Sequence to fold (361 residues):
Amino acid sequence: MSDTRSLINRILAGDRNAFRSIIEEHQRLVSHIVFRMVFNQKDREDLCQEIFVKVYTNLSGFHFGAKLSSWIAKIAYNTCLDFLGKNKKNLYNTITLENIAQKNLIAGDFPPDESIERFEIFYLLQKEIEKLPVHFRTILTLYHLEDMSYAEISKVMQLPEGTVKSYLFRARRLLRGKLIKKYQKEGLWN
Amino acid sequence: MELRHLTEEEIQEYLDNIPGSGNRFVEEHLRSCQLCQKALEGYKRLYARLKTDKGFELSPDFTEKVLSRLSSVPASKSRLNYIEIFLVILGLIAGICIPLYFMGWKYISQKITAIIQPQINLIITSWSLAERGLQNLNIDINLLLLSGLTLLIIYLLDYIIFRKRIHFFFY
Fold:
């Protein structure tokens, strides 16, 4: 925490270069939130940039009672919500098997021996996640990818902890239901 | 021992708190029930899949792009600029006290009244003219004000309560 404090004080004193480590440390978090909330590939990187610019301009408003990552996640979440409100055309994704394959080959998710069926399950899961309401998608991301607690997610999304828990359970139940429906017959999913 | 299967919530709670979850009923049931074991395995696989999602790749020069954008935005100000706050307060005190000391309260209040009075008179005249005009049109001004206030309250409630729900259902 003292490192974060001194880093922020350096930025507030005018050292713009010190902001580099904040970007590098939190770009994964921001990209995950943006990826799950906004579907248009072209808009995603612009939004990530905009989020970090907002973080920079509002840094003096950060109080050390909260974690910096939660505060940045809150800015990312609100920025995406505003974007969705203004751009309703982005409600639907253009996800295809090809772009998933390309993305995951880059990220190294699928070793060559990974079966086609498993790849299909991954693809279906992506499609089903994208059909969920934005709150469900964001909670899944913050909980499973960012390891945030209910309390942290509650602060980021300004929702009661009970609601966060309920949305998370419903989202996972829905996803499992869809996967069972599609793959149970082939014995690929329980 | 309870004779029932585990609910999906119980299985998810069990997986969420795996290290020593302490839920003896769940653990004991899982040892003997193949159906719930199967459901648990399904959830385990789902959890694993959800954890491996990499999102999307930002461009390699992403950090540089953000830093270059920062040069065109105003610098973030330090929140601990006590000197600035002190100087503002000092300026305010000086701005009030110096004229009071040299000119006196009576002189200043006369000058302020001379500036404000015409504006107040103008507002009063406009208000009475509007009131008379509405009365000529047989419109109850109190009813009009009440309607305006009701609409304002409805707008505020809509903004505060329903905005988030609209986001939830449509996005």
Notes: The CA atoms of residues 56 and 144 of chain A lie 27 Å apart. The domain at 95-190 of chain A is CATH 1.10.10.10 (Arc Repressor Mutant, subunit A).
